[in-house]
């Protein structure tokens, strides 16, 4: 996997077989350095605001935190079993990691490099975020299901929710002013 820091034009590419991250200068297309990380790195995300790079290490069940100014690992964050992919909201400095075999998403405070929440998600794999809405989109491995995580209340439906059900849940949340946890919902994707 790879990620680009648009502020510095540095590109970060993971190598699962060598346990390394290759740093490439996007201006010259030349290799800047190679960084040793833990076992089987896969997902990579960049917080361009802090110039911090985060790498999922699948076989070590953790995240390597890389200082983009020094290109060195400065911290390691323990997460769930087999972290696959990672995304970051640079506006809130919050990271979200899919842990496939523990069936969770780890929520990490990037300012403290600490897991602050763990959300149950069936067989999570890929992940993306819309920083403007702070909605996180998680796909299930080999299915047509999409999980959406927002900042209101955590709901774990047992089946796919219809639009009227989602609207009803949102209305109930607003009416009862329960806004402390995370809101999670499933949607069936069209194939």
Q: Measure the end-to-end span.
A: 25 Å
The largest beta-sheet arranges its strands as 1-2-3-4
> How many separate helices?
1
According to CATH, what is the class?
Answer: Mainly Beta
Q: Under CATH, the topology is which?
A: Methylamine Dehydrogenase, Chain H
State the total count of DSSP E strands.
16
User: Which residues sit in consecutive blocks of at least 5 with pLDDT less than 50?
Assistant: 152-183
**What Rg is obtained from the alpha carbons, in whole angstroms?**
17 Å
Assembly type of the chains comes to single chain
CATH architect. name: 7 Propeller
Notable traits:
191 residues, mainly beta, Methylamine Dehydrogenase, Chain H, 1 helix, 16 strands
Give a verbal description of the structure.
By secondary structure, the chain is mostly beta strands. It has a single domain, classed as YVTN repeat-like/Quinoprotein amine dehydrogenase (Methylamine Dehydrogenase, Chain H). It has one helix at 163-176; strands spanning 2-5, 10-15, 20-25, 30-36, 41-47, 52-57, 62-67, 72-78, 83-89, 94-99, 104-109, 114-120, 124-130, 135-140, 145-150, 183-188. The chain has a 4-stranded antiparallel β-sheet, with no helix packed on it. A hairpin with a 4-residue loop joins strand 1 and strand 2 (10-15). It is globular and about 40 Å long.
């Amino acid at each position: 996997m790879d990620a680009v820091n648009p502020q510095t034009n540095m590109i970060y590419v993971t190598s699962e077989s060598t346990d390394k991250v290759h740093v490439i200068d996007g201006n010259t297309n030349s290799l800047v350095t190679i960084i040793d990380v833990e076992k089987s790195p896969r997902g990579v995300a960049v917080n361009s605001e802090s110039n911090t790079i985060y790498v999922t290490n699948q076989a070590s069940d953790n995240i390597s935190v890389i200082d983009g100014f020094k290109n060195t690992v400065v911290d390691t964050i323990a997460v769930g079993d087999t972290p696959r992919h990672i995304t970051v909201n640079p506006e809130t400095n919050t990271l979200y990691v899919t842990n496939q075999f523990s069936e969770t998403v780890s929520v990490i405070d990037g300012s403290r490099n600490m897991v602050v929440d763990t959300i149950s998600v069936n067989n999570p794999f890929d992940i993306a975020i819309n920083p403007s809405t702070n909605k996180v989109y998680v796909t299930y491995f080999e299915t047509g299901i999409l999980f959406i995580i927002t900042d209101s209340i955590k709901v774990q439906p047992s089946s796919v929710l219809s639009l009227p059900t989602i609207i009803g849940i949102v209305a109930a949340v607003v009416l009862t002013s329960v806004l402390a946890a995370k809101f999670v919902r499933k949607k069936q994707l069209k194939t």
